[in-house]
Amino acid sequence: MRLKTISVVLTAVLLATGCQRGSDAKAEAPHGYVEGAEETAEQQSRLVLADAGTGAVQILDLITEKVSPAGKVGNVRELATDGRFAFLGSDTGAHVVDSGAWMVDHGDHVHYYRAKIRTAGDIQGKRPRHIHSDPAITAVSFQDGSVRVYDRTKLEAGAVDEGRSLGSGTQPVPVIPYQEHLLVPGTGSRQDVVEVRDRHGAVKASLEQTCPQVRGEAVTRRGVVFGCSDGALLVTAKDGKFTGEKIPYGGPVADRDRPTDFRHRVGSTTLTAKAGSNAVWVLDVTKRSWKRVQTGPVIAVNTAGEGAPLLALTANGVLKGYDVATGKQTAATKPLSGPGRKVGPQAVIEVDTSRAYVNDSAARKVYEIDYNDDLRLARTFPLDFAPSLMVETGR
């Protein structure tokens, strides 16, 4: 299964120690110092890969090209990340792996880190459906509607705490840590209301703008986006006050054509999602606008953001590029797996600032694409296992 049942907040994953301490402490440790980690000058991108058939978990370092084993998870069904940790979901919970690569974004500067790959522990529950993190906590929504919040600093130390219950609803909803609060949609007396709660779960406010039938969510630099039956709801905060702004579709949209799984590059404010069986949605959060691009049937979509092409992958392994403004196709690869072969139903497109990555479980390969050079195939990584599931960390 692709990342449409476990959604993760892709934000800065650690508050650098040196940036939080007073002048006396700074004399003891360099700015940005993190114990047990090496600070680097460039992004440390790694791909966490899981074989749904065998449960094998491997991590591909995109700088050294080394593949490292990271354990085994029985009946793994989903894979998600918060930029550092990988959450491998099954019917009994989520196995947490520290990928050893992450980024800390302080707005005016960025820190990149690398450390040893290790297991952080296991989150117990009836199939995690949504997982979101901020520097302090990780919120997990389970299939039975229950929600638990975990101490993220414990994960950084290599352990999973017991968690704290936020109660239970009738269905799993994405609970998002944001601006030292929790955004909780669809669990109050009105199912179309988004509540603002404190870290202990107490309701502090309810947004005036509603969001009926929440499906899909994302965190951007402009705020948190929830997909609603009548468009999108953008939630922002200023001076402790939370507000919601609706971004309507601009016309009627059938239920089957609604976006359910937003994909985007970390730091970007352009979101993508499949629009039914023959098109793709592009949501420009900055411009507050939707665009529907007629792509034909695709199994995965993504984009690096403003000025970059919309990327769409077909079942037979053809990656296509589209100009978002015109909706016209601008480039296409040959079938990545070769003629007559499919890449696998759980293939995804991971995008960073210069490259895109596609996992091909059928051919046991991962492809690196230069999307700024007519979708040129830059590197191919042959593997000795089927990379059914994939996420990128270090961002």
What are the key terms here?
mainly beta, Methylamine Dehydrogenase, Chain H, four-stranded antiparallel beta sheet, 34 strands, globular, disordered N terminus, Quinoprotein_ADH-like_sf
Strand content: over 45%
- The low-confidence parts are 1-18, 20-26
Q: At the first level of CATH, what is the class of the domain at 259-387?
A: Mainly Beta
Number of helices: 2
Major sheet description? 4 strands, antiparallel
The total of beta strands comes to: 34
CATH superfamily of the domain at 259-387: YVTN repeat-like/Quinoprotein amine dehydrogenase
Query: How helix-rich are the residues, as a percent range?
Result: under 10%
InterPro entries: Quinoprotein_ADH-like_sf
Protein name: ABC transporter
Structure description:
- The chain has 395 residues and is an all-beta fold.
- Among the domains are: 1-128, no CATH class; 259-387, Methylamine Dehydrogenase, Chain H (7 Propeller).
- It is 3% helix and 45% strand.
- It has a 4-stranded antiparallel sheet with strand order 4-3-2-34, with no helix packed on it. It has a 4-stranded antiparallel sheet with strand order 5-6-7-10, with no helix packed on it.
- A hairpin with a 4-residue loop joins strand 8 and strand 9.
- The longest helix has 6 residues, at 23-28.
- The protein is globular.
- The two termini are 23 Å apart.
- Mean pLDDT is 90; it is low at 1-18 and 20-26.
Sequence-ordered SSE layout with sheet pairings:
Elements: H1 23-28, E1 38-40, E2 46-50, E3 56-61, E4 67-72, E5 78-81, E6 85-90, E7 93-98, E8 101-105, E9 110-114, E10 118-124, E11 128-133, E12 137-142, E13 146-151, H2 152-156, E14 164-168, E15 176-178, E16 181-185, E17 194-197, E18 203-206, E19 217-220, E20 223-228, E21 231-238, E22 241-248, E23 270-275, E24 279-284, E25 289-294, E26 300-303, E27 310-313, E28 319-322, E29 329-332, E30 349-351, E31 356-360, E32 365-370, E33 376-382, E34 389-393
Antiparallel strand pairs: 1-9, 2-3, 2-34, 3-4, 5-6, 6-7, 7-10, 8-9, 11-12, 12-13, 13-14, 15-16, 16-17, 17-18, 19-20, 20-21, 21-22, 23-24, 24-25, 26-27, 27-28, 28-29, 30-31, 31-32, 32-33
